[in-house]
Design a protein that fits this description.
Elements: H1 3-15, H2 39-53, H3 70-82
């Protein structure tokens, strides 16, 4: 399973999107575009990414650009997995 597919599944699960996440692609806007992705959901999403993918995300690594699109989030997670 690709990193992007894993992220889409986690997004769908954490945000309770009911399968809508499966239709997202790299260009799909997240923060500010999906009402379910508020500040509390970002925290839950980070926790789920850490737990399910075995990565560690430091507070200073997170900014709005990380969650701008599916592509930016995928690139961030892929870099964490490669480290």
């Amino acid at each position: 399973m690709t990193t992007q597919l894993q992220i889409l599944q986690i997004l769908d699960q954490v945000l309770s999107l009911g399968g809508r996440g499966a239709s997202f692609d790299r260009g799909t806007h997240l923060l500010g575009a999906i009402p379910e992705l508020d500040s509390m959901a970002v925290v839950s999403l980070i926790t789920s990414l850490e737990d399910q993918l075995g990565i560690t995300v430091d507070d200073d690594e997170i900014d709005g650009e990380t969650f701008a699109t599916v592509g930016s989030l995928t690139d961030f997670v892929a870099a964490k997995l490669a480290a």
